[in-house]
Amino acid sequence: MTWFADWFNSPFYHKLYKNRDESEAQYFIDNLVAFLKPNSKQKILDLACGKGRHAIYLNTKGFDVEACDLAPDSIAFAKKYENEKLHFFVHDMRDNLTENKYDLVLNLFTSFGYFENLDENLKTLKSVNQSLKKNGKLVIDFFNTDFVLQNLIPKEQKIIDGTIFNITKSVKNNIIFKEINFESENKNHEFIEQVQALKKSDFEFLLAQSGFKIETIFGNYKLEKYDAQTSERLIIVATKI
After folding, report:
1. pTM for this one?
2. Domain boundaries in the chain?
């Protein structure tokens, strides 16, 4: 089993990241909607949706949303919120989706670059391209690798609901590793996250190779201008050619 299939489906993953700010996510979605101006008849896909916080909020704004994730437990949780304009399904982003179905695909909160090589990234983007209608748009929200590397904290400890998470971060072969160790019910657990240290130039290459044209790049959830040294996020809006 790949690290992400194991870790993302673990209850400890959701425990560690329980402090993810719902208001920040909603603020970002509000700004994206104001910028992109999708209409209620368009079909939106949230790719790698986790437990569906972005998809659920988009749906409350009247949009027709489908959302998918590799983790069955996350999708099972999200399905409780389904309605006639909100649907969730289990899916590996590398696999093909229905062709010419979506007007907008969102890939948010650094839900990309988990693989071991660029070919799988390219496979993912080509699949997304095929799933989009003519002139459809893709939004990728990735961390700004330059900023992350400058501010990397090698070791830290987080105590969440009585669980002590010991976290070690490192960089090797252009991959950012996060080792997560903790004890629960007298048993030691160890998980590893690994994300490719993709930079703006990498995304420019990958998107061009998979049939996209980059329209604009933002550096934070306020949708302010991207700066390689100071921006916390790398948010790319691209259009299917």
Report:
1. 0.91
2. 3-143+198-240, 148-193
